[in-house]
Amino acid sequence: MVVVAAVGGAEGSRGAAAALSCAGSGVETAALLVDVGGRVPRPTLIASASAHRLEERLAARLPRLRPAARGEVCHLSVAADEDGLAAAGIAVTVARGGVAVVHVAPGHLQSMLDTPAAPRPDAALLRADLTADRALVALAVGDLLERGLRVAVLKRRLGWVAERRAGFGALGSDSGGLPESLVRRLLDVGSR
Hints:
18% strand; alpha/beta; Rossmann fold; 7 helices
């Protein structure tokens, strides 16, 4: 599981989370994108069979929430509180075998890491503007590395078209999304 958050005033972490989930999707397995504190997603007209299967499993396990199959990804929004983080943990368990990406607002990253029922990340992607927040990024990266996470920093926001396509679960690997080396490091592709 990969957690994605912004540092300081950087924008574009939600788009980066969506792009990472698209990069982790495949024909047989849909990725899960959980947005902590985000708005409830709507399904798209076109979604893969694997995204629909994951949507059905999530709806059965979390009947009060509304998962949505969007392209090759299944989106889920949870509240930014302890119950929402527990629901995110359950959703990540349901999506086992596929990539799970959890997007959190900067103010909720520490609470997610410290909440026992929240999902346990293996890696973290930080969207940051290094010219404005270099010291804050260094502190955040240091804390995440101490926790044993693989960490990457996205220094530039994705383009508008790439963010929109990723939000629909339809961002291909050659469509201006995340750098391939960053995706490999976060998803630990070399060890699979």
